[in-house]
Amino acid sequence: MRLERRTEAERRMEADRAHGGPAPTEPALALAGVTKAYRRGAQPVLCRVDLVLRPGEWAFLTGPSGAGKSTVLKLFYGAVRPDEGTVRVLGMDVARVPPHRVRRHMGLVFQSFELLPQKTVLENVAYGAEILGFPPREAAAAARRMLAAVGLEGLAGRFPWELSGGEQQRVGIARALIHRPPIVLADEPTGNLDVDTARRVFEIFRAVHQEWQPTMLIATHSRDLLEWAEARVIRVEGGRLTEDTAASRRGAGKEAALP
After folding, report:
1. Angle, CA of 121, 131 and 188, to the nearest 5°
2. pTM
């Protein structure tokens, strides 16, 4: 997956990230002492949890339904705020900056594809660049390159309702990653897909990580994804985060704490 001949807007965004990104030793994503409950007096979904992902690290969040995987992602992209503790993205305290400023540095991929039904495939992908300030012509050029990268260049003129579920997810990935973000967050990206299609989507994520080394955090129930990837696995359960290493799968885990 090669994304060459980048537009001037893409080059400007990369220069901005290089200027404002984390130092090599600073975490790309960090939770420090974070507690989150959705109702006053309710059992916290997360309780005093710590987590660090370094620049370029790839990790999976796993655990039972309702355990808090999506909450971890939402904390990072600013959809929810912690009751206690600090959430940092590229050194920014998420509580102190507008969510849109944080999300400019992210590619967000969801289980529901979130495509605009009235727009073509090309227009859907280009829209991801246009809302970040790309001129329309540059947005379209970047969209064509991303569609080629995910193997959908021949479907640019179709509408979402004409695509399979796997094709729609690949469009969603192309739109989310059109600006080559330094952070990629994905919430059950293969949850609605069969195994073969899920494998193809996984290979896109692998190629993205090899191409520009974003920090990637993917929430999933899929044991297949965990087996395919040689990546860090963090288990969310009982309000805690634990490292799900090969040893912990045999019964010995450790807290996923800040060093």
Report:
1. 60
2. 0.87
What are the angstrom distances between the C-alpha of 95 and each of 37, 49, 86, 242? 16, 17, 8, 25
Instruction: Answer yes or no: is pLDDT of 21 > 70.
Output: no
Q: Is residue 3 part of a domain?
A: no
- DSSP annotation string for 75-96: HHHTSS--SEEEEEETTEEGGG
233 assigned to some structural domain: yes
CA–CA distance, 29 with 7 (Å, rounded to integer): 28
Q: Which residue from 106, 110, 107, 146 is spatially nearest to 126, judged by alpha carbons?
A: 146
Give residue 230's pLDDT band: very low, low, confident or very high (50, 70, 90). Answer: confident
Looking at residue 156, which CATH number applies to its domain?
3.40.50.300
Average pLDDT over residues 229-239: 93
Structure tokens at 189: 């990206």
